[in-house]
Amino acid sequence: QVQLVESEGGLVQAGGSLRLSCAASGLTFSSYVMAWFRQAPGKEREFVATISWSAAMTFYADSVKGRFTISRDNAKNTVYLQMNSLKPEDTAIYYCAATRRSWSIAPQVYDNWGQGTRVTVSS
Hints:
With about 120 residues, the chain is mainly beta. The protein has strands at about 5, 10-15, 20-25, 35-40, 45-50, 60, 70-75, 80-85, 90-100, 110-115, 115-120. The chain starts with a strand and ends with a strand.
């Protein structure tokens, strides 16, 4: 059974930084494309970043490009999201997701999801 467990989020001031991690189990981690999505109150879930199986490729939403960095450690079965220069509009529940199907930013392609972790950025 695949399990994805995100680290605790938190409250951070605008301009600050936070690193999220997502530990995976029950899968051959290196065979999965990993991604982060987020959902703000009253909004639909949106794509944040994705990383390919070997970390050779990454892709970001325009809203986070240059501020967020996705990375993975296949030896530790963990994917990370380093978030810098945080803005109040980054406030959301952040979800880790995994898929074997294809490289994609579409949430429906991802079969496995974490429980989510709340990030709040104060102005």
